[in-house]
User: Fold this.
Amino acid sequence: MYKNRLQEIDDLKGKIDSFRPLRSEILRQIKDYYKIGLTYTSNALEGNTLDLAETKVVIEDGLTINGKPLKDHLETIGHAEAYNRLFELAKQNFIVEDDVKCLHKLFYSRINAENAGQYRKKPVIVTGADVDFPLPSELPKKMQDFIAGLPAIRENSHSVEYAAMVHALFVNIHPFIDGNGRIARLLMNLALLQSGYNITVIPPVVRADYIRALQASNHKDFEPFINFISEMVYEAQKEYLRIIERLQ
Assistant:
């Protein structure tokens, strides 16, 4: 269903790069725009009930939405803070274990301070799941191996393939008690930013396809997920190009 779009992505990146460097005011507007979009979509994929407009109100105005769960608000505020940190982390050319823990702590500290930034202490039990997640005692080694393996993947892959692999490999470790999907998408975007790409969102409307592609990666079949992410990046680049053309 999803095609490999790496060539089209490279073509679009060339067009986007021709506009760089962008003025600081344009960069600020784009950063704020994607803060809302990425926070809304990433939370919605996990069942958060705030819609796009409500997400914007919570982030920009600090208001609460009547009738919506407190946790949905806390997830929104935390995700926005973690998103802001991406741009600091993107100044470096690598991902380290402390970056992963930092993003989770920012996202999760208002929800559960004790477990924010800490690896889970209990096994993951998912009814009907066809993957065995690592036991708590295995997590430190699994995460160290994950981080240690990233440079080689990056060196031998297209930047978009690398970002997809960061996401898939992290999710298959599932190191935190909650928020693993959101941290995976933040890490994917960190990898993209570090390689000169723009923020990419996964719309809730394609959630079923996203889950299917991720499930294939559980069995080391990464091609469906790489193709899926390449389509998401392709669509994100088309939108990004329209935005910067309009703002020039």
User: Anything to note?
Assistant: Residues 6-247 form a domain with the Fic-like fold fold (CATH 1.10.3290.10). The mean pLDDT is 96.
